[in-house]
Amino acid sequence: xxCISVEEFLFWKKKQLSKGGNQQSLxxxxxxxxxISTSDLNSIIFNPNGKLHLKKNxxxxxxxxxDHLLESCPxxxxxxxxxxxxxxxxxxxxxxxxxxxxxxxxxxxxxxxxKKSEKLFFAELGTGSGAISIALALAYPLSEGVATDIDQDxxxxxxxxxxxxxxxxxxxxxxxxxxxxxxxxxGKLDLAISNPPYxxxxxxxxxxxxxxxxxxxxxxxxxxxxxxxxxxxxQKAPLFLKEKGWLILENHYDQAEKVKQxxxxxxxxxxxxxxxxxxxxxxxIGRYK
Length: 289
Prior knowledge:
By secondary structure, this protein is α/β, with parallel strands linked by helices.
């Protein structure tokens, strides 16, 4: 560990932000590579004459920050790590960087299945880094889960993240498109979850370059209207859910009402649009009959 003064660190931090970028991205870099958490950053204000311990020197951290600014590459990919809920996850350009708003999916599950001792059988379609499934497998240790993804490289990252996060064995991984790896589980799921690609084509073309140039297109583009994959997931869900089984979907900021109508058309009940922390209808949930 390298020891530097708080004064020197704050001067360095101010210099980095003067070049561009934002506080949040720099905080991710400092946490992932420097070993300085957000709580550490907040506490040094009260101890300006103190010392800080770094895992990497400032020159190295600055070189990574410069790469981020020059190429617009997300800091998480440059670090190979991101933080999500209480998980530390490996990420690469093969997987979408899990977003803070997606953390609410886990809270929605908690609100439906209140007892952590419940023996659920759940599936996540399009797991990416594995974030959602790992969080649920840890929260419901008596449950069994299956996480799928169309990309074997993404699944390898998810498997590593599960092994790094847990000593449990209640989560399996299968490669395939949406429901196809789950044929042997028809009528057996208490819960299915997906944060599928839902960006409409016109919107995708206008995405910021740090997203469009680096994050996997297959995890973002949802067809012309953004609902291509959501339709497929909803239409086939009744084959796999138990009676009264739940489906939880993340959708684009303006899609919730359309997703609700697709759920109604496919005989789902107890349909609810759940808003994220910014007040956007980010999730649509329903129960099959």
